[in-house]
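In practice, a research group might receive sequence data for several interacting partners and want a quick structural hypothesis before committing to experiments. The following worked case mirrors that situation: the sequences arrive first, and a predicted assembly follows.
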Amino acid sequence: MKDTPTNKILLAHGGGGRLTANLISNNILPKFSNEILAQLADAASLELDSPAVCFTTDSYVVKPLFFNGGDIGKLAVCGTINDLAVAGAKPVALSLSMIIEEGFELGVLDKILASAAEAADGAEVSIVAGDTKVVETGAADGIFINTAGLGTKLPDVNLSFGRIAPGDKIIINGTIGDHGMTIMSQREGIKFESQLASDCASLAPLTCRILEAAPGVKFMRDPTRGGLAATVNEIANSTGHSIELYEKDIPIKPAVQAAADMLGFDLLDIANEGKVVIVTAPDTAEKVLDVCKGHPLGAGAGIIGEVAQSEDGPIVELITKVGGRRIVQMPYGRELPRIC
Amino acid sequence: MKDTPTNKILLAHGGGGRLTANLISNNILPKFSNEILAQLADAASLELDSPAVCFTTDSYVVKPLFFNGGDIGKLAVCGTINDLAVAGAKPVALSLSMIIEEGFELGVLDKILASAAEAADGAEVSIVAGDTKVVETGAADGIFINTAGLGTKLPDVNLSFGRIAPGDKIIINGTIGDHGMTIMSQREGIKFESQLASDCASLAPLTCRILEAAPGVKFMRDPTRGGLAATVNEIANSTGHSIELYEKDIPIKPAVQAAADMLGFDLLDIANEGKVVIVTAPDTAEKVLDVCKGHPLGAGAGIIGEVAQSEDGPIVELITKVGGRRIVQMPYGRELPRIC
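A structural hypothesis for the assembly, expressed as tokens:
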């Protein structure tokens, strides 16, 4: 029996039978060619350089699937690589699992997979394990992708909330809000959307270089959902120290600010996908800044704040451009559904 | 600002802000208490016993979410543990990522998470990383769960298609079709559904014991989607050898057979979630069988077939109870959507 060619995903593509095998051999394996994946074992077998590992996962439900600067495939690869990178690891391998709605275009799936493969290749990370499930039309919205990531810890690196102390500097590697405002502008169809592009990128080349040059860095986190506001509030709450941010020093693109103003968002709350917040002692801050500025992913880096003594419990304050102070709260979370 | 209590999942629970933090601290962390997860780092930090690891992932979209013998939480934990187990690894850590539909009952989520935690505890595996995304009502069907798994390879174990040779015995640890027919019977509402129960279980205790007692075992695979038919066809196609299955020796529960007959399914194609197919040399087959029979997960084990010389390319043949022969094809995959 010959299988009828199809340009759409069918339920049988997720059934574990012949159509699943076809999808794997025709659409998936050619894009992610590596010896481990090609074995199609129940689990990928890896020899790591070290038994000290980092392990993480994220699911991606971004809408729309394609946006200026990326798509769900690139995002799913870069996002999970970044969680390893900011934990002080060298990313080694990813898994990639898809939940696809019946009727989804195979051509669109191919584009997403090609983009995921390109992002993984660019970061020198192998996609070694995967899974495909198909659900009926209406039971999912197009495609959702999960990636999990495995990395080996960089030697002599010790990143933790516990090392953060008053006086430490807070650095970011570039402009905030680019990813979230790109997605929201495309969704709302506002006119200048073409001027906006997601910052979606793999941060590992930058973080590895920073940690090599300044192993004394104390903490890193990528300000994704919840934006810079969520990240600095997490730092404040976990350390018990307060944080001051300097509004004038936070890098923002004018078109991003215009979009935020038009749509009524505070850019501090908006997701980034190629940014890292770095906390480091004052005497290494310039070194970190130099490393950032010497790398394409950190050209717009700046010191944007400082860890401060907490008076009555930890708070985050923004020192405004006119010298006022306002509290930066943990966002509620309703602002931007399906941003990543 | 006090958050209004809610008994339903809101979009903001997936927004990375305060409601996400509440969900993590109130509903997730108390169930999966371990030091690694409690750090809430971007990636979990682990010291493994060995740098030789296995890594795998699966997404779970089973419908209904609760079934006789399990639920999506237990299934997501056991299924990924089993992929590590049959690859010859000792499962160590899992990630668990959820995509939840807005409006999903928090009480139901709690049940699912408690069940996942119980399954992980029972298998002595820690859930060390996680993620929660929420999509609008209608953009997903209740809840989908992805788990990825990390295990360390058992020493001196070498499982691969390449070692399989004609004459090798094929062993299964018990009855086939229990999981798939339980799900289908519940979906169809047929009367004897109460007599059926999924075999959903973590196989690692059994596979580790088998590999310790009989390190010469050549290959193992869990016959999930596509059932026994898919697994033996994969073995035939990957080795180039043919396979003979003995119908009279394949363990089947009468109620499962009755359900399959009523609904028109071939049990060879039906998913299992607590079964392992083991390929081993003839001189170790009895040893493997003894180990199986001495373990609760293998009490119903039997030798169900043999690897044979291939004449004109590899085929799988069933020797029927009356002595006939029929070809067992790779299932097409349409039989059972959302079985796991």
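Before designing any experiment, note the following. Chain B touches chain A through 87 residues (CB under 8 Å). Chain B has two domains: 11-153, 161-327.
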